[in-house]
Amino acid sequence: MRPWMRLDNAALIFPATQNSRWVNTFRLSADLAETVDPALLGQAVRDLMPRFPTVYVRLGRGLFWYYLQAVDKAPDVIPEYAYPLTHMSRREQKRCCFRVLYHENRIAVEFFHAITDGTGGEIFLKSLVARYLELRYGVPVETVFGIRDRRDAPTAEERRDAFQTYTGDFPMSRREDTVYRLFGTPDATGFMHVITGIVPTGELIRKAREYGATVTGFLAAVMLKTIIGMQEGHVRREKRRPVKVTIPINLRKVFGADTLRNFALVLNIGVDPRLKDYSLADLCREYRHQMDLENTPERMAARIAANVLPARNKLLRIAPLFIKNIAMRSVYNRCGERKGCINISNLGSIGLPEGMRPYVTRVDFMIGVQLSYPNNCSVASCGDVTTINMIRNIRETELERRFFSELVRLGIPVSVESNDP
Predict the structure, then answer these.
(1) Is the dihedral of CA 391, 392, 397, 401 positive or negative?
(2) Segment 304-317, tens digit of pLDDT
């Protein structure tokens, strides 16, 4: 029988909540200086299979739990055939939980979120590109910036469900105010519209420092200001709700873990615009103070406990899978997406070894829309290029237009790309 493993604690919710229209997937891609050779890319994908046993898996369904099982062979690489993050069906997940695509000079990997998070995906993509460059140009693989050498054995730490290790003894309440929700006209075709803002990393960092903020804090503040303005245009003052952005936190940095599986939690950071008219400086300050308060090992351990401890309940453990699915959907509908307006997921600076830098011109990160969020935002920087990918499944572009216009008004040059016809 092929090796199998339990889903990590964060992954439990993803197969339970997906449906025929929505799957929690994300995408990482690297643009190279020359056109991709698909035969060599396929060889690189096959070569990495023994090194990443937590990635080369399929989703299985048992009587009591979903599980991940090693695949028989590496997936074939395929040409980009539609739009980013096309629907990943349950049938596809039963074969393999990630796909590798190429188009001209771009290599892209799309992951079902149950197998890893953005950091794990970044490590896999960079390791894949490193192996591809080794095959094509003889570039030696340097195991820095998280890159794994295919000849090394996977470690127990990489395979660990770190949530079980770092959970606290007492759970934190999930109670938060329900926030203003973005809305629009759904695209009946299911098309994922992507508008990408390309900005100089140095200019973005300098502007963030002017406001005493990190890049993530600055972008979150601009997004908060944007959504506050949208709510003012659509909702009477007495009916307005709090506005919050959902920020994924890489718990590896908090606890010093090195797992390649999911190990992130989210914080909802924001303000109630009924209290005052917030300037951008106010919003940067609010972000910094709230993040300083919440992003601590003690409070994160308590947040982990809120997810881990219920799953250890003996009655829940012996309940059939369909009962667990109902329970998890109920929790997700109540707590999962009602407390934030939009995700802003920033992978930060994508470090590359010196030998790879001449060959990689750009890196993109893209998280699909959520079950009830019509918009999402993902950010990655490589060298002096930062890409801000705004994805949506609605027709209206108001959010993107307002957000990028605000960056330009602040003096940050933005080049815009779109996959819209």
Answers:
(1) negative
(2) 999 898 777 777 77
